[in-house]
Amino acid sequence: MTRNTYALLGVLGVLVILAYLLMQKPGERSSAGESGEALVSVDSLAVDRIDIKSPTVNVVLQKKGVEWFVESPVSYKADPSNVATLIHSSKTLHVSNIVSNKPDKQSVFQVDSTGTLVKMFQNGVEKVSFILGKSGSSYSELYARRAVSNDVALVNGASSYVFNRPVKDWRDRTILSTPRERIQEIRYQYGDTTFVLAFKDSTWTIGKDSTQDGVVNSLLSSLSNIVTDDFVDTLAARPTKPTAQISLAGTQLTFFYVKGSEKYLVQSSLSPQWFEMQSWHANPLLMRKKDILKSRK
């Protein structure tokens, strides 16, 4: 070998040794550590409160009986599916490796006050507390830290959005939910114009006129599960003249078109809450008589 070759091999050897020493620096290690272990362990059925705090959201979810409610920043029934997803996702966060244990490195991975702090209670007692930070190299990887530990772990198994939903997504968006078979009559009112779509003798008719089966089936599917796009907790001015009213299954829904926009304000006789629906979402519900009837040849 030439002298230059030996020199290059010597430099390479020094670099390898330096790299090894750096990897052994306390607090900055890449280790399998607790690989495969669940970040936290909770009993899904026993969890009865969840606190979520981040720089943008501060939400408290509370279980009352068998139902979940948003306790703060508003008081409202919670979306049971989103709460269940959060609890399940917490249990599926598994440690891939420990990336650091130095407190001054926590901000790098956003597992300090810039992260999302999740506290879960069982039978009224805090069971686990952990902080979720920035995403890893893939959509299912996050940096996380148990609140009682300085170890920063790379975990997989859940999306950050599951824990960082805006407040409106923790609220139950249901305006009306009723089985299709319970809908036997639908009354529409547009100003002074009214008509009734009724199910009689195994047939949907408006008065004595026949209707289009496909249109009615689509309408029934839409009416049996109506959800809002957003919540309106404070009205600048209460609307007075409704655009339309739909009455079905013992419930009356009132729609107010917001001029200069593509949305409706909606109120249900079942609740004092005001809702907001985009026009594309509301229009399939607001059927006109001519659109339902069979065309006359």
Provide the number of structural domains.
Answer: 2
Contiguous low-pLDDT stretches (5 residues minimum) are: 14-33
Helix count?
6
Overall geometry: elongated
How much helix, percentage-wise, in residues? 10-25%
Secondary-structure element pattern, one letter each: HEEEEHEEEEEHEEEEEHEEEEEEHH
Q: What is the alpha-carbon Rg in Å?
A: 29 Å
- Mean pLDDT reading: 89
How far apart are the termini? 98 Å
Structural class: alpha+beta
Query: How much of the residues is beta strand, in percent?
Result: 35-45%
Could you give a short account of the major beta sheet? 9 strands, antiparallel
Spatial ordering of strands, largest sheet: 4-3-2-1-6-7-8-9-5
Number of strands: 20
Short description:
The chain has 297 residues and is α+β, with helices and mostly antiparallel strands. The chain contains six helices and 20 strands.
Task: Write up this protein.
Residues 14-33 have low confidence and may be disordered. The protein contains six helices and 20 strands. The strands form three sheets. Strands 4-3-2-1-6-7-8-9-5 form a nine-stranded antiparallel beta sheet, with helices on one face. It has a nine-stranded antiparallel beta sheet with strand order 14-13-12-11-17-18-19-20-16. Strands 10-15 form a two-stranded antiparallel sheet. The protein has helices at residues 3-23, 80-91, 167-170, 213-224, 279-282, 289-292; strands spanning 47-53, 58-64, 67-72, 76-77, 94-100, 116-122, 125-135, 141-146, 152-156, 174-177, 185-190, 193-200, 203-206, 209-210, 225-227, 230-232, 244-248, 251-257, 263-268, 274-278. The chain has 297 residues and is α+β, with helices and mostly antiparallel strands. The protein has two domains: 31-170, no CATH class; 174-292.
